[in-house]
Design goal:
Blueprint (H helix, E strand, L loop, with lengths): L4 H18 L7 H6 L20 H12 L6 H14 L13 H13 L22 H9 L4 H13 L5 H19 L4 H13 L6 H5 L2 H4 L17 H13 L4 H9 L5 H16 L6 H6 L3 H14 L5
Length: 317
């Protein structure tokens, strides 16, 4: 399987625009969002940032894209993450204004010991969505190099372990990657179900018991039938992935998918980033509101990283 530059752009700008729509509402309660729902990309809010500001989600996607090539240099990725935290690289305004606790701890571990094999946190109490938010490059890279879905998922596991090493976090990244790979092959909602079925089969194997069991609701044939009241959004990797997939299944365009994810409240930027990456693959770059991509801060920097990734990995338009 191969991938075009336009699909890479759709996925990355889809993630970034979703992130930016969600930033002003991060940590807002579901009740607050019901009373005052998000209706557009705006500024202010939680961090008092200008409209179009993206957060750590997009930053870490860019770090990974910028360093992910055939060398598989995970040290380079971790060093890029550190340049974000310490020097404000890969950010809208030269400042790290949002970072998860598990990610921070893993980066400090790497700064102290320089070991990509032991810096990630392998604890059941550290299954936030900090690796899921940045995992779309695994599918993009795998597609460019003709890797199988299973190998793409194994790459997503390895990328997750850099910060979030527990099997639950790895599995969430893997499920997302199965869905993304299916959408890259065929931009149709049926690909979501295809990806979930492949994920369910893969994670039924030996060694994935705990990781698989917490996603049983997502693997159920009845997941799409769940009412909105049964869906929530928090910093937990499982609820973030459920929210993103449910929103994708219950809308018919990028704009509504992202806003629905934001309006669940909680970790709004990440839910919308994860949903936005998948919706970008489903609806294409043309499906993302032009005014949103135009409003993104430092959109040219995002484009430059995408172009570099595509050039290094032999991806053409």
């Amino acid at each position: 399987m191969s991938i075009s530059k336009s699909k890479v752009r759709a996925a990355v700008f889809g993630a970034a625009a979703g992130d930016a729509v969600g930033v002003p509402y991060e940590f807002s309660s579901a009740e607050r969002m019901r009373k005052n729902p998000a209706t557009d990309m705006t500024g202010g809010g939680t961090y008092s940032m200008p409209a179009g500001t993206w957060s750590d989600d997009t930053t870490m996607i860019l770090c990974t894209l910028d360093k992910l090539d055939e060398g598989m240099d995970f040290d380079a990725i971790m060093k890029a993450f550190l340049s974000w935290v310490y020097e404000g690289e890969y950010t809208p305004f030269g400042d790290c204004f949002d970072i998860g606790n598990t990610t921070r701890t893993a980066l400090m571990n790497y700064a102290r010991h320089g070991d990509v094999n032991s810096c990630g946190i392998d604890s059941s109490y550290n299954n936030g969505n900090g690796s899921l938010m940045r995992i779309i490059p695994a599918a993009l890279y795998a597609s460019a190099h003709g890797l199988s879905d299973e190998d793409a998922v194994r790459l997503s596991h390895r990328l997750s372990t850099l910060t979030h090493a527990h099997i639950i976090s790895q599995t969430g990244c893997g499920i997302f990657t199965f869905i993304a790979m299916s959408l890259i092959r065929k931009a149709d909602k049926s690909s979501v179900s295809e990806g979930l079925k492949k994920a369910a089969a893969f994670y039924s194997g030996v060694g994935y018991g705990e990781g698989s069991s917490v996603y049983s609701r997502l693997f159920s044939d009845d997941f799409a039938k769940l009412p909105e009241a049964k869906i929530s959004s928090s910093g937990y990797v499982v609820t973030t992935l459920e929210c993103a997939v449910w929103c994708l299944l219950h809308t018919d365009n990028y704009h509504d998918c992202v806003l629905k994810a934001v309006n669940f409240g909680g970790d709004t930027d990440t839910a919308a980033c994860v949903a936005g990456a998948l919706a970008g693959l489903l609806y294409g770059l043309a499906g993302i509101p032009v005014r949103w991509t135009a409003m993104l801060v430092k959109a040219e920097s995002i484009e430059a990283v995408i172009s570099g990734f595509c050039e290094r990995n032999g991806i053409i338009e």
